[in-house]
Amino acid sequence: MSASLHPVSPGCGVEVRGVELARLSNSDLSLIRDAFHEHGVIFLRDQTFTKDDHLAFARRWGEIVINEHFPELADTPEIAVVIKEADQKTNIGGGWHADHSYDPAPALGSILVARDVPECGGDTMFAHLARAFDTLSDGLKANLRSLRALHSSRQIYGPGGAYEGTDLKQVLKADGALSDAMHPVVIRHPETGREVLYVNPAHTIRFEGWTREESLPLLNHLYAHATKPDFTCRHRWTPGCVAMWDNRSTWHHALNDYQGQRREMHRITIAGTALDAA
After folding, report:
1. Cβ distance 261 to 83 under 8 Å?
2. pLDDT digits over 130-140, tens only?
3. Does the annotation mark 99 as catalytic?
4. Which of 11, 76, 77, 215 fits 206 for a cystine, CB–CB 3.0-4.6 Å?
5. Residue 39: active-site member
6. CA 131 to CA 230: how far, in whole Å?
7. pTM confidence score
8. Catalytic residue among 37, 69, 99, 103
9. What whole-number distance in Å separates Cα of residue 206 and Cα of residue 15?
10. Which one, of 28, 63, 45, 25, lies nearest residue 244 by Cα?
11. Do the strands 186-188 and 195-197 form a parallel or antiparallel pair, or are they unpaired?
12. What DSSP string runs through 146-201?
């Protein structure tokens, strides 16, 4: 069977069919790379994908980043375990965000494998930030190109952060390093050259030279715009499903609508480079 692409929504995401990631040819890898950069996130269902397969596929993209905050798979620190037990109330990633935007060189992307999924619920939403930027007014685009913004992991993982006081506090690594970084608000995508809006609700604190209070009205306007149906898709997980998203051009949001059910995903994150202004 030859590989084929099937868009998930007009604005974001594509399903790749006819491919076994554990036996991936160079030509199919090239097709997947192109789809990844164009659509922001790719999905492949019914994969027989061991942890060694997961590692091997990730290494074809670049260096693996070991997550500072998530628990890791036993004897395999490269694989982060994104888990919610049936008796837990809080999930990991339960809000719109881009992974590692608080790092000076944010992650290229992440590869997530579904190991144990709820009978229903636990979907993930994705948003395409290049397409969202394309539809802003010319005046707002010009203003945004002149700005930089501060990103931080502190408001999520630090003392007093979003996970403080939740039942995830004991799951996440207490000694995980906290990080801050300043990035252009509009970046030039390293592979496609497209302009991408690079802020996100979880990690962006304020614009450089602005206060938090001054920044929030514009940030909230951008967040509302980027999460319109025109630029988003919703993915339903099944066992053996693999998703890979481009962290430079997408956000994602893990929905927490499956109370009383267990969900376990395995994630590898690929190292990226410092981001250049558009």
Report:
1. no
2. 999 999 999 99
3. yes
4. 215
5. no
6. 9
7. 0.96
8. 99
9. 35
10. 45
11. antiparallel
12. T-EEEEESHHHHSTTSTTTTSTTTTTS-TTPPP-EEEEESEEEPTTT--EEE---T
- The answer to whether 36 and 244 have CB atoms below 8 angstroms apart is yes
What is the four-CA torsion angle of 191, 195, 200, 205, rounded to 10 degrees? 110
- Paired residues of 125 in beta bridges: 234, 253
- What is the tens place of the pLDDT at every residue in 43-93? 999 999 999 999 999 999 999 999 888 889 999 999 999 999 999 999 999
Q: Which of 39, 100, 189, 252 is catalytic?
A: 252
State how far the Cα of 123 lies from the Cα of 187, in Å rounded to an integer. Answer: 28
Q: How far is residue 185 from each of residues 96, 149, 150, 204, 218, measured CA to CA in Å? A: 17, 6, 9, 10, 12
- CA distances in angstroms from 198 to 71, 130, 207, listed in the order given: 27, 9, 12
| Nearest CA among 196, 210, 178 for reference residue 248 | 196
- Catalytic (active site) residue 54: no
CA separation, residue 65 to residues 58, 69, 97 (Å): 10, 12, 18
Is residue 121 within 8 Å of 184, Cβ to Cβ?
no
Of 108, 101, 123, 122, nearest in space to 269 by CA? 108
Which of 203, 191, 126, 190 has its CA nearest to residue 161?
203
48-83 burial, b if ≥16 CB within 10 A, otherwise e? ebebebbeebbeebeebbebbbbebbeeeebbbbbb
Does the annotation count 267 as an active-site position? yes
Strand 4-7 to 204-207 pairing? unpaired
Residues in CB range of 51: below 8 A, 6 or more apart: 73, 76, 79, 266
Structural contact between residues 267 and 111, judged by C-beta atoms closer than 8 angstroms: yes
- Tokens 């039942």 — which residue? 167
